[in-house]
Amino acid sequence: MRRKAGLVLLALAVFCAAMSPLLRWYAFPRLVKVPAGRYQTMVLEAKPATLIDYATMKARKVPKITVVQTLKGNVEASEKIERNDGDSSRDVVVWDGLSYIQGPDGKMVSKIPERYIFDAHSQEPVHATGEMVDGDPVEREGIEFKWPFLTEKRDYAYFDAQARVTKPIHYQGTRKFRGVDVYYFEQTIPWTEVPLPKTLPVKGITPRSIAGTGTTRWYTTVRKFWVEPTTGAPVYGEEIHREELRGGTLLGDRDKVTAFFGHVKMREDYIRDTVDLVKSQRVLVLLMTSYLPWGLLVGAALLLALALWLEARGRRPGDPAPTADRAPEPQPADV
Fold first, then answer.
1. Considering Cα of 44, then 49, then 50, then 54, what sign does the dihedral take?
2. DSSP assignments along 132-147, one per residue
3. Which of 270, 226, 227 is nearest to 42 (CA)?
4. Which residues touch 291 (CB under 8 Å, ≥6 apart)?
5. C-alpha–C-alpha distance, residues 156 and 154, integer Å
6. Contact criterion met (CB below 8 Å) for 284 and 31
7. Are the C-beta atoms of residues 151 and 232 closer than 8 Å to each other?
8. How many CB atoms lie within 10 A of CB 302?
9. Can you give the pLDDT at residue 335?
């Protein structure tokens, strides 16, 4: 019985040892992914800020500007791209995003829609029909909004939707944020001429009418993210954002005017919700990448040790030697 039990334990030890790397290196890259139907909203504020008044074409100080960013998973579009791609094993996520900026009175300042298409596992961009920013077709390179699972301590290529360009976002070190270990990344976009938003707050003023005056829009920003590395999800973000209108007859004798300037930060209630959500998702990823693989290896070692102990106990010295079966000796015949 001991030998049979030892063989069973040995088989279980081999199974656990084999499952550990399979779970980490085979199952994890295929099972852990961004859900296609995810919906999230983020609210950021700049207090105070500078904002252009398109009625007078003058910059004015305002107490607050609010930026509402929404990302809505488009499952129907994802499934259509997967069918057209011809690779049924590929999981594609389509996020329909909207960056909506409103002034202190709650009225719209600008809104820029975009469609971001990417691989659900690696977060690499997927180029397909419908990929756009503010109605303009784009072909993204690099990440946007989210880092890959198991983020590394290195620079990444990050797509800037305003300038429609990809620039490096630099790893600046490991920090602590609200009890979470995070990687801090920073990107600077230098002054760049960018398109005017297609939707402006004043009737009669359109991107075409402004462009007809020779006036152009310029933009620069310093983008900062605190990223939880296991999930690749930012737990906090800031931007030092500046826009200017330059040249043309629209500005009269002025060379430029500030269209928007502010230090944009996540609102406190959204910080708390984001940190709580990322903490819960982190446990699920660690289950596949650390807890279960290492638990299986430890379990395999314990099972192997128990199997060897049972085998050694079955052969311990001092036990009586087994008697060999011998043929019965002949008995003397009666005289």
1. positive
2. EETTEE----SB-S-P
3. 270
4. none
5. 7
6. no
7. yes
8. 13
9. 44
